From TrEMBL:
It comes from Aromatoleum diolicum. It holds the Pfam family PhoX. PROSITE patterns: TAT. This is DUF839 domain-containing protein. It comes from the Bacteria. PANTHER family: DUF839 DOMAIN-CONTAINING PROTEIN, SLR8030 PROTEIN. InterPro entries: PhoX (IPR008557), TAT_signal (IPR006311).
């Protein structure tokens, strides 16, 4: 039986052509406005953004952050509470995943011999990461955000967070900042997101490992053998991508030094110990947007990995709540979390207390995709299967060790390594789950390591003649839980769509029959409209950018099993391998069309909509990030959105229809 009455209608717009222009291109009959840019003030008394690198560092605590990413719209009722069906006023929660440092400072970051020499610049970067909450309002058909709203809030790398669930208050979490392992500071690299049935926002920590400084050759010998295995598995190694730990002198509360994962109590009193700081990142973080004073909570029961997002499964009274999650790295896994408590709608206004009930007590599973088109969810629990102290690769000690090192537990469980799980989305019509596998390369998925769920290896030549070997255009996999029960431990799956150039080999590369109206590469964001049933697909494309900027497509999907089993012949032009797989029905231009193309060097991300389906919020992330800026002449990779010689800015846009109708149909 259908979970929800929404059925996708026909797509009702003409496809947008591929484009390399520095604009947002939309179908005829649609328009967009820029709602919220990097630097825009979210409190009264904060000056307009100068966008020249001179804005006061402390002011960034009250400005739009950088690299807008995952997003959710919560309807706001006149009583200041969550009103699910409110489409005129809402709290927009959005992630600020990362930064383009070049544009934040007068002439890019000040670095001498690998050391950050301007502490104020680093402070600006601390604030430019994290999450933003803004009150958005539609008046006279135009969307704005209310600068003076009491709900406006920035959460960033300095914000105090509570830890909860199995890993909280354990020795793994002890730092100088929190000797009892109960708290940590900040969230970072918040990529995709999710929501709960009780109106809270879930922000997910993705590439957090890269922010820590840990030079393996000189790491402190106090590290145990187990710690070294875990740090290597999570990639906590290197200088730290923004070199935050190199600032001297440190502050008394170690704002810079805590990014040094080698800081193992070297002060005279041995108290500045931050060896465990990386353990306090990599989680799903719950934020109550309706309570601006609530302390965010890191929910450790959902596991620690490169968390892309957390997508809520179908919500049924009396049944467990389920969130689907991906770990976005090459050869990583797809997970789900199933609450032990059945959903009771009486909890819908309980804020973070509802989170304590449903998000701290549940089971964590990882997916195995079998060659016969079926799949299994394997529980990650201490003492079950190989997740024991006797496991040779990594001896597990307790429940906290399992959630903290979910990747190692998934290795022990024999889960299927995927081609970079990006976003997921759940079809409101039937509860089927879609996961974008954005791409991989020949080194990570050599032709000998193909499997039915990750079956392609080919040479995608750029128009410049450059070879791109492996699965550079990615695919989207989908699965249907057994018995339409999100808590089931088995499923059936197929490949919904393969990214490809329209001109690629139709038999084995352009398997989904893409044309000029809908060809794409590197699917990243996925999102089902609750109002129309349309599946929105966003791209983050390193492979196809010789032909087009990144884009948003709309699809009317079928269902798992509507295609057929077939064989894909993969080749690196020396070796050939035939891989059996299950492929969804070709959608054709009727059911898959390009809706939007973004400006230069951006990624399209962060889709959200009003409940009535008449406003679509989209994030334009990091326009112009690839071209080295020339500040003397004002030559940048993009000048979007402000034009002229301006520095580019990440921004949220709102797409509406000229006639006020639902988007996409
Ligand atoms: Fe931040 Fe996986 O994209
Ligand atoms: Ca992404
Ligand atoms: Ca991506
Ligand atoms: Ca990006």
């Amino acid at each position: 039986t259908p979970v929800s009455p929404q059925h996708a209608a026909k797509l009702g717009f003409s496809p947008v052509a591929k484009s390399l222009a520095d604009v947002v291109a939309l179908p005829e009959g649609y328009r967009y406005s820029v709602l919220y840019r990097l630097g825009d003030p979210i409190a009264t008394g904060i000056a307009e953004y100068m966008n020249n690198g001179q804005d006061a560092p402390a002011s960034y605590a009250f400005r739009g952050g950088d690299h807008h990413d995952g997003m959710h719209y919560f309807g706001l009722g006149p009583n200041g509470k969550h009103h699910k069906n409110e489409s005129e006023r809402g709290l927009l929660c959005l992630n600020h995943e990362a930064i383009t440092p070049a544009y934040l400072h007068p002439n890019g970051p000040s670095i001498v011999n690998g050391v950050r020499t301007a502490a104020d610049e680093v402070l600006r970067e601390f604030y430019a990461h994290g999450v933003g909450i803004i009150e958005t309002v539609r008046a006279g058909g135009e969307w704005t955000y209310d600068r003076s709203s009491r709900f406006n809030r920035r959460i960033h790398t300095l914000t105090e967070m509570d830890l909860s669930g199995p890993a909280a208050r354990t020795p793994y979490m002890v730092t100088k900042y929190s000797p009892d392992g109960r708290r940590t500071r900040g969230t970072v690299n918040n990529c995709a997101s999710g929501a709960t049935p009780w109106g809270t926002y879930l922000t997910c920590e993705e590439n957090w490992a890269g922010y820590f400084r840990r030079i393996t050759a000189i790491d402190n010998p106090k590290r145990s053998a187990k710690e070294l295995i875990a740090l290597a598995r999570y990639g906590v190694a290197g200088n730290g991508r923004e070199l935050w730990a190199t600032v001297t002198p440190d502050t008394p509360d170690n704002l810079y030094g805590r990014w040094n994962a080698m800081k193992l109590g070297s002060s005279p009193d041995g108290s500045d110990d931050y060896r465990n700081a990386p353990n306090t990142y990599g989680w799903v973080v719950e934020i109550d947007p309706f309570d601006p004073h609530a302390t965010p909570k890191k929910r450790t029961a959902l596991g620690r990995f490169a968390h892309e997002g957390a997508w809520l499964g179908p919500v049924r009274t009396g049944a467990p709540l389920v969130w689907y999650m991906g770990c976005d790295s090459r050869n990583e896994y797809i997970y789900k979390y199933v609450s032990n408590q059945p959903w009771n709608p009486a909890d819908a206004n309980d804020g973070l207390a509802a989170g304590d009930k449903y998000l701290d007590d549940g089971k964590l599973y990882v997916a195995r995709f079998d060659a016969d088109g079926s799949g299994q969810w394997i529980e990650l629990r201490f003492g079950v299967g190989n997740i024991t102290p006797a496991n040779a690769a990594y001896p597990f000690a307790d429940d906290a060790d399992v959630v903290l090192h979910a990747r190692l537990a998934a290795d022990a469980a024999g889960a299927t390594k995927m081609d970079r799980p990006e976003w997921g989305a759940v079809n409101p019509k039937n509860g089927e789950v879609y996961m974008a596998l954005t791409n991989t390369n020949a080194a990570s998925r050599p032709i000998g390591k193909l499997d039915a769920a990750n079956p392609r290896f080919y040479n995608d030549r750029k128009t410049t003649g450059q070879n791109q070997l492996g699965n550079p255009n990615g695919h989207i996999i989908r699965f249907a839980e057994a018995g339409e029960d999100a808590g089931a431990t088995s499923f059936k799956w197929d490949v919904f769509l393969f990214g490809a150039r329209a001109t690629a080999d139709a038999a084995n590369v352009n398997i989904s029959g893409l044309t000029d109206a809908n060809d794409f590469s590197s699917p990243d964001g996925l999102w089902f409209s609750q109002a129309t049933g349309v599946l929105w697909i966003e791209t983050d494309d390193g492979a196809y950018t010789d032909v087009t900027n990144c884009m948003l497509l709309a699809a009317v999907p079928g269902a798992v099993g509507d295609g057929a089993a077939r064989t894909v012949v993969s080749t690196d032009e020396v070796t050939t391998r035939a891989v059996g797989t299950y492929v969804g029905k070709q959608l054709g231009e009727e059911n898959l069309r390009r809706f939007l193309v973004g400006p230069k060097e951006c990624e399209i991300t962060g889709v959200a909509e009003t409940p009535d389906g008449t406003a679509l919020f989209i994030n334009i992330q990091h326009p112009g990030e690839d071209t080295r800026p020339d500040f003397a002449t004002g030559t940048f990779g993009s000048h979007w959105p402000d034009g002229g010689l301006s520095r580019p800015r990440s921004a949220t846009i709102v797409v509406t229809r000229d006639d006020g109708g639902k988007i996409g149909i």
